[in-house]
């Protein structure tokens, strides 16, 4: 098969697509023919060798470091967590899946960006027939972080919730979920994304200088919760807006969580395959949109990550083997 690999930490140019051994279905695992595998900012931190420190902070916070998927690599390294595809072989001990089943899920070992991937049977849910492959291959890392962030701040109907990065992959899900339960949601985003936010019942506010005043004006009263998906001072902004620490969640700012200024619920806190199934059901029912910013053939993996690194994509960037 062809697969994304890199032989040492570095910038996007270390990524190559080359031949690798086909994976085999060990007991408890299936092998899928990959149809779509989304890119995530976390892949960039891992590939640049910046993730080990963040992983150590997160392990300290969770107190369950041995359970967390490792963010450091043995080389040659593979890449990619989100995945969707068709099962081509099934390991011993699996009753739930058969060859030919269309599934979506995630790879903690980060092997998704390849023509084939071996995955634990428990990390998969069935792909709805009418869900596109690119959405199916985008359902895990960011949407589950959006779900965890929304649940961590527990918005109630009528409350006001602010989401930073509201049109990004994590923020778009967090904002829609908070809105869905009846909260008034203020979404921080650049102007090209305001129309999408409005269409989803979210009040757009442009970020940058003066944003605190613009948020207060849009809220017209108390701000109850804040979901940060960007970092870089948004936890401080939440406090400036009067939101108590227990109702601030950040997907990014581990130090703020260590300091007790925010919660840090993310993908691994969402609730695994059961949470993924809830998200899939919402998307299949037309109650949640997973925006797709762009798709790239696997061979153009470097271009996909250059675009993602710009930090202004609206939704998911997806590789198609
Ligand atoms: N803890 C976890 O489990 C977990 C899981 C997934 C992701 N994450 C992290 O969460 C972050 C977001 O991930 P993602 O996949 O949603 O990224 P993304 O899709 O690239 O979204 C980035 C967003 O940031 C916004 N943005 C850019 N510059 C900004 C600024 N100066 N102020 C405010 N917003 C700005 C962009 O908005 P505009 O386009 O409107 O400019 C865009 O919507 C990443 O750091 C990622 O590593 C954490």
Short structural description:
By secondary structure, the chain is an alpha/beta fold. Helix 4 packs across helix 5. Bound molecules: NADP nicotinamide-adenine-dinucleotide phosphate.
Architecture overview:
The chain folds into 2 domains: 2-139 and 290-320, Medium-chain alcohol dehydrogenases, catalytic domain (Quinone Oxidoreductase, Chain A, domain 1, Alpha-Beta Complex), CATH 3.90.180; 142-268, NAD(P)-binding Rossmann-like Domain (Rossmann fold). It has 11 helices and 14 strands. The chain has helices spanning 41-47, 51-62, 133-136, 141-153, 169-180, 194-199, 211-219, 234-240, 254-258, 272-284, 301-309, and strands spanning 2-5, 16-19, 29-39, 82-90, 102-106, 116-120, 124-126, 160-163, 184-188, 203-205, 225-228, 248-250, 292-297, 316-320. Strands 3, 4, 5, 6, 7, 13 and 14 form a 7-stranded mixed beta sheet that branches. The protein has a 5-stranded parallel beta sheet with strand order 10-9-8-11-12, with helices on both faces. Helix 4 packs across helix 5 (169-180). The longest helix has 13 residues, at 141-153. The termini are close together. The structure holds NADP nicotinamide-adenine-dinucleotide phosphate (NAP). NADP nicotinamide-adenine-dinucleotide phosphate (NAP) is lined by residues 40-42, 141-142, 145, 164-165, 167-171, 188-190, 193, 207, 229-230, 251-252, 266-267, 308, 311-314. InterPro entries: ADH-like_N, ER, GroES-like_sf, NAD(P)-bd_dom_sf, YIM1/Zinc_Alcohol_DH_Fams. It comes from Nocardia jiangxiensis.
């Amino acid at each position: 098969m062809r697969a994304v690999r890199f032989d040492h930490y570095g910038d996007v140019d270390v990524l190559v697509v080359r031949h690798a051994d086909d994976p085999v279905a060990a007991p408890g695992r299936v092998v899928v023919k990959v149809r779509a595998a989304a890119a995530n900012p976390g892949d960039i931190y891992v590939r640049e060798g910046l993730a080990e420190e963040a992983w150590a902070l997160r392990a300290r916070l969770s107190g369950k470091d041995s359970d967390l998927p490792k963010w450091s690599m043995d080389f040659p390294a593979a890449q990619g967590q989100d995945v969707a595809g068709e099962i081509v072989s099934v390991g011993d001990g699996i009753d739930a899946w058969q060859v030919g089943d269309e599934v979506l899920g995630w790879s903690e070992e980060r092997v998704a960006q390849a023509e084939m991937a071996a995955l634990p049977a428990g990390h998969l849910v069935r792909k709805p027939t009418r869900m596109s492959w690119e959405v199916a291959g985008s359902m895990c890392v960011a949407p589950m972080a959006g779900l965890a962030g929304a649940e961590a701040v527990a918005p109630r109907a009528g409350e006001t919730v602010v989401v930073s990065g509201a049109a990004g992959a994590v923020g778009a899900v967090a904002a829609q979920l908070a809105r869905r339960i009846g909260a008034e949601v203020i979404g921080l985003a650049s102007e090209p994304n305001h129309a999408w936010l409005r269409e989803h019942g979210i009040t757009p506010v442009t970020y940058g200088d003066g944003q605190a005043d613009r948020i207060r004006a849009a809220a017209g009263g108390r701000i109850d919760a804040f979901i940060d998906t960007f970092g870089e001072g948004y936890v401080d902004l939440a406090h400036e807006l009067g939101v108590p620490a227990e109702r601030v969640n950040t997907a990014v700012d581990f130090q703020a969580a260590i300091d007790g200024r925010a919660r840090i619920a993310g993908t691994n806190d969402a609730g695994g395959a059961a949470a993924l199934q809830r998200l899939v059901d919402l998307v299949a029912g037309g109650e949640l949109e997973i925006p797709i910013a762009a798709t790239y053939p696997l061979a153009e993996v470097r271009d996909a990550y250059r675009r993602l690194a710009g930090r202004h994509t609206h939704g998911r960037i997806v590789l198609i083997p």
